[in-house]
Write a structure and sequence with these properties.
Elements lengths: L2 H10 L8 H9 L4 E4 L6 H11 L3 E5 L3 H13 L4 E4 L5 H13 L4 E4 L7 H7 L4 E6 L18 H8 L5 E5 L4 H10 L7 E3 L7 E7 L3 H11 L3 E5 L3 H13 L4 E4 L5 H12 L5 E4 L12 E6 L6 H8 L9 E7 L1 H14 L3 H14 L11 E3 L2 H7 L4 H13 L3 E3 L3 E3 L1 E5 L3 H10 L1 H13 L8 E3 L1 H8 L3 H13 L3 E4 L2 E3 L1 E4 L13 H23 L5 H8 L12 H7 L5 H17 L4 H6 L5 H13 L3 E3 L5 E3 L2
Parallel strand pairs: 1-6, 1-7, 2-4, 2-5, 3-4, 5-6, 8-13, 9-11, 9-12, 10-11, 12-13
Antiparallel strand pairs: 14-21, 15-21, 16-20, 17-18, 17-19, 22-23
Helix pairs in contact: 1-3, 2-3, 5-6, 13-21, 14-16, 17-18, 19-20, 24-26
């Protein structure tokens, strides 16, 4: 058995890699820069974790998703692999200790948020590390042509100059051919090396349903398809309302969104994973990093803003390779809503400039100040104070983020962290002199390890249960130890953060590239149009439409989506249908003709021609004008 398979078996319990995984691992291990395109659920993390474990040194993992970062670190720890994370929201002291552990400890993985790469602290410390690999998760974020461009990702290429011996592995689940090429260029690949697993999901059946009453259609889907499901909605209110509707109709459902507490989100997520909850109705905050293999259906109530987002979310169904359904519900009002979201996403430049000045004023930051500072952020409070609609404010801040002026993190839930700041001898003296603290300190030392070498996450309720007291009593003890300078104590905090990457500029020096703004606006519009085309097209296999979007132009129709099922009912082979369709299109486009004239000019049997003509007319590909002439509708 190879070195890589031994590692896979020892830590993950698998005898075999999934398709393409082993080739990626080999290329990375041999020092080749690699871009790996693998669909959601394809096992991307293993492709950098295995080669990193096979080599001496530490692997740097860059990812923008702090919740997922924390989850992966915890999963590695459970497998007895030493890993840690550094991200905005940690104190400077915490980061300093973490970097020391990365340099001098035997850690194998250091997860970093991308904005950390530009800091002087990181640049000074990374050169002392023995970095064996630089892994870039969600690599599409580095491309301005992608659907989720993040300027902080551009720091990665500069980081490579500090660790020139380390190869880079970039992984993503969604990238068009243009984005894939851009990723390799932006990451300064020594040579282009794209390893791509087909985006085709043969077990996933794509279905689009036009539904004026989406609730009734959703209920029908839940009653028709057995097993667990995910239902994506646009906002938090709809998540709760649709879940209540399903429960009222005897479908076991729950709702999930980012506005819930971490405990509540974890509980809802765990209940769904254990099948205590059958259906979870959620915003796009749900599903990232969740590996539940037996999801039988994923329903989108609202049109997503991009094919990439839809493909990634739909791909959470059927990871066990058994049949699953991805259903998109739409009606005529959805197009209007999507077009409205497009307008909101790109407010006027004057509005963006005003929001820029307002956000610095919000934190009382004067001109030429603010660079590198991190602050708690409340969008609602900011919007109310400056009399601006919250959606407009959010969009303006996103535009400023894409220009590199600032960055807003997802909502963080940082648990309480403590670290002993005295040596053991001093701690012993304190315990002898303070009987009330002695028992509490012994409980801390019994429950948690590593308290003298770094910050450790603690749970006050867990400690209270072990001590036989209340959470408030635990908090009081921690506060007392902190005031005695025995521990460094960072209380729990839950908030989004805003990070200013540049000092405040006056209105004359503020630069917002109209070219970049215009280009991003056009790219966004193209993605919106692609989603609308996918929703309304009823003459081309759903799977082929998605594969074409990602550059796989030689695919075959799936035979199972709603479009293919309608075509199958015609009792014509794929070859016969396409042959007649092309003949009809050519005839109609060359000259005006009636149905009878069109049929008389074609060969292939009148019954078959009539079936295809009828199907094309029912699906609005052909229209009959007032004078009886046929017209091809593009």
């Amino acid at each position: 058995m190879s070195l890589f398979r031994n590692i896979l078996l020892e830590y993950w319990g698998y005898n075999e890699f999934r398709p393409l995984q082993e080739k990626i691992v080999e290329d990375v291990y041999n020092g080749r820069d690699t871009l790996a395109l693998m669909p959601t659920g394809g096992g991307k993390s293993i492709t950098f974790q295995v080669p990193a474990l096979a080599k001496e040194g530490i692997c740097l993992v860059v990812t923008p998703l702090i919740a997922l970062m924390k989850d992966q670190v915890e999963n590695l720890k459970k497998r007895r692999i030493k890993a840690m994370a550094i991200y905005s929201g940690m104190t400077a002291h915490e980061m300093d200790i973490a970097f020391d552990n990365a340099i001098y400890g035997d850690y194998k993985f250091l997860y970093l948020s991308p904005e950390r790469l530009a800091t002087d602290l990181f640049r000074a410390r990374v050169q002392k590390m023995n970095v064996n690999l630089l892994a870039v998760d969600e690599a599409h974020c580095i491309s301005q042509w992608g659907y989720d461009f993040r300027p902080s990702y551009l720091q990665i290429a500069e980081t490579r100059t500090l660790i020139p011996a380390a190869p880079v592995l970039a992984v993503t689940a969604t990238a068009t051919p243009m984005v894939a090429q851009d990723i390799m260029e932006k990451l300064h690949f020594k040579e282009k090396n794209l390893l791509q697993k087909s985006f085709e999901r043969r077990n996933l059946v794509y279905v689009v349903r036009k539904a004026d009453d989406k609730r009734t259609m959703l209920l029908k889907i839940c009653r028709t398809i057995s097993g667990t499901g995910i239902v994506y909605v646009r906002n938090r209110k709809n998540a709760q309302e649709f879940a209540e509707f399903l429960n009222a109709n005897q479908v076991n459902a729950d709702f999930y969104h980012a506005g819930l507490s971490t405990e509540m989100r974890n509980r809802k997520q765990d209940e769904w994973k254990r099948d205590s909850t059958r259906v979870v109705v959620c915003t796009n905050a749900f599903g990232m990093g969740i590996d539940k293999p037996d999801v039988r259906f994923v329903v989108h109530i609202d049109l997503p803003e991009s094919i990439e987002a839809y493909f990634q979310e739909a791909g959470r169904g059927g990871r066990d390779e058994k049949t699953a359904y991805a259903a998109l519900l739409y009606n005529d009002t959805d197009k209007v809503k999507l077009e409205q979201r497009f307008k909101i996403a790109f407010p006027p430049l004057d509005t963006i400039r005003k929001v820029y000045q307002d956000i610095y004023s919000y934190y009382n930051l004067p001109y030429e100040a603010g660079k590198g500072t991190v602050h708690d952020f409340s969008l609602i409070d900011f919007a109310v104070r400056y009399s601006i609609h919250s959606l407009t404010a959010h969009s303006a801040l996103q535009c400023l983020e894409r220009e590199g002026y600032l960055e807003i993190t997802d909502e963080l839930d940082n648990p309480t962290r403590i670290m002993f700041t005295v040596v053991r001898d001093e701690l012993y003296k304190l315990q002898v002199a303070n009987a009330d603290l002695d028992h509490f300190i012994k409980i801390l030392l019994r429950l948690y390890g590593g308290l003298f070498s770094g910050y450790v996450n603690i749970d006050e309720s867990f400690i209270a249960k072990a001590k036989g007291g209340t959470v408030q009593e635990v908090s009081n003890f921690l506060l007392k130890l902190s005031r005695l300078h025995v521990i460094s104590y960072i209380p729990r905090k839950r908030t989004p953060l805003i990070i200013f990457h540049k000092e405040r500029l006056d209105e004359h020096n503020l630069r917002i590239s109209t070219d970049n703004y215009g280009q991003r606006k056009r790219c966004f519009e193209e993605r919106v149009e692609a989603v609308l085309r996918y929703a309304v097209t009823t003459t081309r296999c759903r799977s082929r439409q998605l594969l074409d979007y990602f550059g796989e132009t030689d695919s075959y129709r799936c035979g199972r989506c709603d479009v293919c099922v309608m075509r199958n009912e015609l009792d014509l082979s794929h070859y016969e249908f396409d042959l007649i369709l092309n003949q009809i299109k050519q005839t109609i486009c060359e000259k005006d003709c009636t149905i009878e004239q069109c049929m008389n000019s074609l060969q292939g049997g009148n019954d078959k021609i009539l079936k295809v003509l009828k199907w094309l007319m029912e699906n609005n590909k052909i229209k009959e004008t007032n004078n009886g002439k046929l017209q091809w509708h593009t």
